[in-house]
Amino acid sequence: MEITKPVLITAAAALLLGACGSSPERPDRQLARAESSIQQAERTGARHHGSLALDRAREKLNQARQAVDREDMELADRLAQEAEVDARLAAAQADRYESEDALREVNDSIETLRRELERSENQGGINQGG
Amino acid sequence: MRDLKIFMKAGAVGAVLLVLASCSSTPERVELLEQAQAMVSEVDRDPLAGQVAQVELQEAKNALERAEVAREDDADIEIIRHNAYLALRNAEIAKQRIAQAQAQREIDQSEARRNRVIMEVRTREAERARRLAEARSREAEQRALEAGMAREEAERARQDALAARQESEESRARAEAAMEEARNLQQALSTLEAEQTNRGLVVTLDDVLFDTGKAELKAGAEVSMARLAAVMQEYPDRRLMIEGHTDSMGEEDYNEILSRQRAESVRDALVKQGVSPDRLITKGLGEEFPVTTNDTAAGRQQNRRVEIVVSSEDGEFPAAANRNTMGSL
Known about the structure:
The structure holds two protein chains of two kinds. Chain A has helices at residues 4-19, 28-44, 46-49, 52-69, 73-126. Chain A is an all-alpha fold. The longest helix of chain A has 54 residues, at 73-126. The radius of gyration of chain A is 30 Å and the shape is rod-shaped. The N and C termini of chain A lie far apart (120 Å). Residues 125-130 of chain A have low confidence and may be disordered. Chain B is an alpha+beta fold. In chain B, strands 1-2-5-3-4 form a five-stranded mixed beta sheet. The longest helix of chain B is centred in the first third of the chain and has 66 residues, at 77-142. Mean pLDDT of chain B is 86; it is low at 17-24. In chain B, a hairpin with a 2-residue loop joins strand 1 (195-197) and strand 2. Chain B has helices spanning 2-22, 31-45, 47-52, 54-72, 77-142, 148-188, 222-234, 252-272, 297-303; strands spanning 195-197, 200-205, 240-245, 280-284, 305-310. At the A-B interface, helix 1, helix 3, helix 4 and helix 5 of A face helix 1, helix 5, helix 6 and helix 7 of B.
């Protein structure tokens, strides 16, 4: 009984600490995912298009690393998750932007064609005798 | 033995208090959660979502569920905000994919349309050549019979009609061009998440782009500012109104100064990128125009922002855009 008393108290303390979140490990996998999402977004041209979502992602990843230095691993994990989702949003925005750009080009070329069609229609009657 | 029991009881009570103290209580409403719920259900209703954005939509729903469970369990508000944030962004990704798929679809339809127009051009050219040949032979037959004056008169009437048609087409084209420019401007600013409001197009810079309590814009925002500057080059008649905002913590005067300095910091970044300073207006509006509650940390972060309002194409801002602090110019 004398030996188990301190053991019981220590176990109780550990359980109580665990109730409010144990000390987790470095969220290395999540940090790597955030990093890779940011790189991928930069490859799609989100950087070129000047994306606010990508700026947020980079800032949050920096803050995540600072949180790791302070050993606040839970905060680091959350920040890295948010950085990852912002980077994926930036990539999706860039893809959409390029598709809409391509659509505009096609429509412009149709418009030009149509105007030429109308113009030569109008000229056709006048030049008929020439 | 009795000492041990008393000790354990006291320890248990103390431990419960410790647990309650470190998991803070939550307010009734979390605005980010409501925004996330609204956007997730909006995306869910779109039939295209299942085809092109199933993964993101599911992730959004999962995050939303975690947020709602956390709220019911009265968990730390940061957990609720975090999951609501993930849900909102995933739903936004889904929206982007849907818009992209729609653009792709329209490209396919447009290409079919272009081919038809090309065919039309060729057909009409052939038709015109045929008619030209016919007309020439008719003319040769009827030249002796046709009165020269009658032909001239018909031609004049035709040219009048043509001129009138061209004029109305030109004014229609001008009106269309103005609308098209407005649409193109919004698209050009889409990566800056510009929103159409009653004040005009507004780009909002998040608090995370500034150091806590400081006025300098972080270097990481340079590319976005370069983008905005490039758009300003393309639309030389537009001006920008740059407004700084803070949350309600601290002195009002201090907040007005800090918000003005942040606006000026954004202005300086744009000037550095080549935008002429007389196209930029800065204002420090302090804590007077929050967008959400100041009672939560999440709300306060949202209120700390810089808004950039784009003028109309005559360089003016509608009355709704002119917000001033009390007692200032």
